[in-house]
Amino acid sequence: MHELLDSALARIESAASAEELEAVRVEVLGRKGVLQALSKDMGKLSPEERAARGKLINTAKQALETAYESCKAVFENAALARRLESEWLDLTVPSPGPRPGSLHPITQIQWEIEDLFRSLGFSVLDGPEVETEYYNFDALNIPKDHPARDMQDTFWLEGGHLLRTHTSPVQVRGMEKLGPPLRMIAPGRVFRNESVDASHEHTFYQLEGMMIDRNVSVGNLIYFMKTLLTAIFKREVAVRLRPGFFPFVEPGFELDIQCLICGGTGCPVCKQSGWVELLPCGLINPHVLRASGIDPGEWNGFAFGLGLTRLVMMRYAIDDIRWLQSGDLRFLQQF
Ligand code: PHE
Questions:
Q1: Is the distance from the beta carbon of residue 246 to the nearest atom of ligand 1 less than 6 Å?
Q2: Ligand 1 in contact with 249 (CB < 6 A)?
Q3: pLDDT tens, residue by residue, 272-309
Q4: Whose CA is nearest to atom 3 of ligand 1?
Q5: Among 28, 38, 52, 206, which residue has the least CB neighbours within 10 Å?
Q6: Quick check: 299 and 212 in contact, CB under 8 A?
Q7: Which residues are registered as beta bridge partners of 185?
Q8: Is the distance from CB of 208 to CB of 304 less than 8 angstroms?
């Protein structure tokens, strides 16, 4: 009997899991268990023997139950500890909150240039992206049969409208609305039916500028263009001025900057030339002033059309224009 009880105790204590422990409990302490079997033939014993056997069984039962309870507690504690570990949550960690976005690099530079020109007394104007033929071409001295129309591959819309091919129509709107003297810029989106490659997009950004006053000279124009470029690049950039033809300026210039992507050695962005056309400009053609009711005998001025998209590419050394409208977060998160 002592051996039976000892081995029952050993089995309880060596149970490897809560399930195994439960199985041992049923076997040892259950209705068909060992203790029950030992109590079975008690009736045949003498009263003294019975009393001694009963005492023994009770002591054994208590010992087994105590052993069982303490083993059970060990398994329960372990299970609880595992749960606490896996479900642990630190409620004091500050929430990361919504991830802040950032301004598109074109918007950033646009706002910078707006600030600069506002400080120089210029107004910032806006114009429609769907324009009329008159504002986009005719009022700018580009009549219907003029070859200059072919320089800008136009998206024509039904009803004689078009997607503006440049921001220059805002010059005309500005002159009509504000009259001389006038200092204005007009940033915005323009559209051309280009085949898209590393340096051409059908949709890009320009920033138009116009100043009308008395006795405006090419010297004034160059001064403003240099102020603009120094503010943008915050360093010396090599520039060159070439004659350039635009029907709405006379004389007209192409202001090129040395390519900042390749440093002038040639790359896809500068079409291997080392130079990038950035700032076409010139003195306003008298026809343009006259078309907007301004007397060219009294007033003159300059105009420029900064390639904002190209400028952004130069400043951040972006080697493919298609990144800008890609919506790719890997690109956008860098700004
Ligand atoms: N609008 C012209 C273009 O997009 C650029 C330009 C603007 C040239 C103003 C001269 C003066 O090609």
A1: yes
A2: yes
A3: 999 988 899 999 999 999 999 999 999 999 999 999 99
A4: 166
A5: 52
A6: yes
A7: 124, 209
A8: yes
